[in-house]
Amino acid sequence: xxxxIILLTLAVLPLSALAADVTGTWKSEFDSQIGNQKYTFxxxxxxTNLTGKxxxxxxxxxxxxxxxxxxxxxxxxxxxxxxxxxxxxxxITYTGKLTTGDNEIKFTREVGEFAKEEIVAKRELAAAATVxxxxxxxWQAQFDTQRGLQKYTFxxxxxxTSVTGKxxxxxxxxxxxxxxxxxxxxxxxxxxxxxxxxxxNYINITYTGKLSAKGDEINFKRQVGDFGSSEATAKxxxxxxxxxxxxxxxxxxGPRGGRGNQPIVLGPDDKPAFPKAPEGFDKARDxxxxxxxxxxxxxxxxxxxxxxxxxxxxxxxxxxxxxxxxYLLHGIGGDEEEWHKQGHPEIILDNLIADKKTLPMIVILxxxxxxxxDRAEGNIMAAAPAFAVFEQDLLTDLIPFIQSKxxxxxxxxxxxxxxxxxxxxxxxxxxxxxxxxxAWIGGFSCAPNTKMPExxxxxxxxxxxxLKLLWISGGDKDGLINIGQRTHLYLKEKKVKHxxxxxxxxxxxxxxxxxxxxxxxxxxx
Length: 525
Ligand code: FER
What we know:
- By secondary structure, the chain is of the alpha+beta class.
- It has three domains: 18-123, Quinohemoprotein amine dehydrogenase alpha subunit, domain 2 (Lipocalin, Beta Barrel), CATH 2.40.128; 137-254, Beta Barrel (Lipocalin), CATH 2.40.128.120; 292-522, Rossmann fold (3-Layer(aba) Sandwich).
- It has helices at residues 4-12, 338-343, 345-354, 384-405, 422-433, 453-456, 460-466, 481-493, 509-522; strands spanning 24-32, 35-46, 49-58, 61-73, 76-85, 88-98, 104-111, 115-123, 137-145, 148-159, 162-171, 174-179, 181-186, 189-198, 201-211, 217-224, 229-236, 292-300, 305-313, 325-329, 362-366, 415-420, 440-444, 469-475, 499-503.
- The chain has an eight-stranded antiparallel β-barrel with strand order 1-2-3-4-5-6-7-8. The chain has an eight-stranded antiparallel beta barrel with strand order 9-10-11-13-14-15-16-17.
- The protein starts with a helix and ends with a helix.
- The site of 3-(4-hydroxy-3-methoxyphenyl)-2-propenoic acid has 11 residues, from loops.
């Protein structure tokens, strides 16, 4: 892989960052064990410090409490409300997260040990803040993104609070145009989405911005799917006439400062599913039998040329035995050598087989960039569509070739598909769409090519019936972890059996090797 870590770092770092300011009045109404409660929170934020009051009402009884231990950390907000109940002090803790537009906070509210609710607080927009911003016209902004500098011209048309229009984008010598979706102006907050087609998947690029007092600048945060984000100021082009805004609408929300990087928000399920691989699991050992690794070429009817793949044959490989096969896929900056060079699956497998922790198996390390030039060179992102084409190459060309050349089992129960990052997305996308071909599926640190969970698993009952193992994992410091998280949460809700494994680590081979070590022990059993 050329350098996925740099790629990812670039995507995550260049954020000068917007900080939320939650100062203001927020309301929340919810049902609790003791009846319907109406809350008004008055927050005052100073840096990361939060003070204020909670006034609440429950069947005509009113009470008020000062907030304690209040904190704002990026989008995370927490505080404690002390409640005196029959002479006892009870802590009500609130932990929450600001959502899009910064006008809603989703809180978990825990009353001592005995009650826990999910509640939503909504910002009371000051009357003045609902005033006539009019952003109709042409605006320009340049976003420094992981794919390079992207020059945007937005043409907005505002009608009441709704916004339609276009984004024209220039990037190096490429151009694209998109119709904007979900456009809104709420007070001085402008938001909309730009649909972007990546490999047949629509990823929404969402924009949230704040209009300046003069109405001639919008400070946008641009969020690409669940992955990268960047910021830029859009300015009206000279030709357009600045719209008038009510100056009182601006500043009501206070200043904005540093929100920080793409947030990694860990949930209660985001922990290791297994103890870490023991010391030495990835070190070549003397005194055990070793498998072999070779490069072979197959005819790809899909791409129309010969394509390379690496093949690991287990120790003592013999034509008298029929072996199960694991297809193991690389990331966006890699090729058929990536796993071999950086992950040494042959060492991990030799050790596991020697220790009888896994069955002898064949491991195929293909090239997942199914296009004529499948080298990882130039603009690595530009090859993303070829990673989708590999579905056909794998099913119609590679698997039949492997089964004709090597002594393999050919039923689904003896075929596994797993991969890292882009290859993790491929494994879920292809594997779950072809349960008749793969019974064991693993997505390690899945990339944004991963389909939405509803599309991956439209029929939970069928998935449960067919899958022998569905393994999804990520590192707790990986900016892509939310792709795994959203998949896990969907599977959990739909009661689809799976393993969700979160190791401590980033988007790197330390995590992937550990995943291979664990995954290899579970398959073909
Ligand atoms: C992206 C970010 C990362 C993306 C793919 C990746 C298709 C893949 C990373 C990897 O394979 O390591 O936006 O879009």
